[in-house]
Amino acid sequence: MTDASVGRLGDPLAALAAVPAVAEAVASARAACEALRWHEAFRRRWREVRAEAGLRAAAASAALDGAPVGVELLRAWATGAGGPAHGTDLVAAGALRAQAVVEAALPPLGGRGGTAALPLPQLVARVHAAAAADLLPAAELGRPRTGAARDLRGLGQAPAPELAAARLAALAGAVAGTAAPGVVVAGVVHAELLVARPFAAANGVVARAVARWLTTTTGLDPTGTVLPEPAWQAAPAPYLAAAARYATGTPDGVTGWLVAYADAVRAGAEAARGVADAVLAGRSGGTGRQGDAGR
Q1: Which has the closest alpha carbon to 278: 40, 107, 72, 30?
Q2: Topology classification of domain 3-281
Q3: Contacts (Cβ under 8 Å, ≥6 apart) of 282
Q4: Which of 66, 112, 190, 234 has its CA 20 to 30 A from that of 149?
Q5: C-alpha span between 289 and 33 (Å, rounded)
Q6: What is the pLDDT of residue 285?
Q7: Where are the domains of the chain?
Q8: Residues 6+ apart with CB under 8 A from 216
Q9: Is 77 helix (H, G, I), strand (E, B) or coil?
Q10: 160-187 b/e (C-beta count within 10 Å ≥ 16 → b)
């Protein structure tokens, strides 16, 4: 994180959360997540809802990185019906694997299991190793880049490798010691991974998957089903523009990203409610390729 965006306060993320516009958006997102928790599907079928939401999150995340394969193809891969061979399918397969790593690390609903206490750098490395397994040499999986980043070029030039690594280390320290609400923690981590691009490839998939883990492990969404990803898929240009403004480090840029992020989380709670409804009705699952991630 930059000095301009967080200052030199003891808890910079909490300071961001105190900005009035951010606080208002965070409250709205939190209320939506709290309401979702009481959906009837989470009494007995939360695992099904979480699995379905994970598929839709992976499909939307892959589409944002240029691989709009849709939910049903990912569902087929997840159940062992073939797999990707080349091209953008490799990106989508990485998004699916990244979601699987995240879901394995989540605590059960109402329990204390999982790996919620996993240090952020370790989780990021695991997710990247899964996301980029078909895209990078084995020696680069889960490891900071030593050269240029090859993705997210719409955000401008990525920081030099040593600066990206320093930002990631500062981020881990800030997250470990913060009292900020989960929306802000997940939002800042998401933006930092997009902007710093600490890896040679798959940074977008990693950012969204890690943010999903944080949304649950911070207590914001204990169901592990909130789906902001389809909202970003539906409006990719504003999503990247907000990240680019965050990258400037200005107060308006950082605040704007966090407000937009909280709004996406609120929309994601509604999307998750739709998934929960579908699971109860026995009609979960999409039917098409591009665009079905949020249905």
Answers
A1: 40
A2: Fic-like fold (1.10.3290)
A3: none
A4: 234
A5: 28
A6: 55
A7: 3-281
A8: 106, 107, 116, 222, 223, 224
A9: helix
A10: ebeebbebbebbbebbeebebbbbbbbb
pLDDT for 289 = 36
| Phi, psi at 66, each rounded to 5° | 85, 20
pLDDT of residue 163: 96
Q: Nearest CA to 19 among 240, 178, 180, 221?
A: 180
Q: Among the residues of 18-119, which ranges form H helices?
A: 20-37, 41-44, 46-64, 71-78, 88-105
Structure tokens at 256: 């704007």
User: Residue 43: phi, psi to the nearest 5?
Assistant: -75, -40
**Residue 10 has what pLDDT?**
85
- Using alpha carbons, select from 97, 57, 102, 56 the residue that is nearest to residue 78: 97
- Per-residue pLDDT, 118: 85
Q: Which two tokens stand for residue 120?
A: 């952020």
CA dist 2 → 46, 51, 148, 196, 256 (Å)? 39, 36, 20, 11, 16
pLDDT at 18: 97
Query: Which stretches in the chain have pLDDT values below 70?
Result: 1-9, 111-116, 285-295
Q: What are 199's two structure tokens?
A: 């890896």
- pTM, entire model: 0.91
**Structure tokens belonging to residue 79:** 């159940």
In tens, the pLDDT along 132-157 reads 999 999 999 999 999 999 999 889 88
Structure tokens at 178: 């913060």
Closest by Cα among 108, 111, 107, 81 to 96: 81
pLDDT of residue 36: 97
Q: What H or E segment, with its residue span, contains residue 189?
A: helix 182-196
Side-chain-side CA neighbours of 200 within 13 Å: the count stands at 16
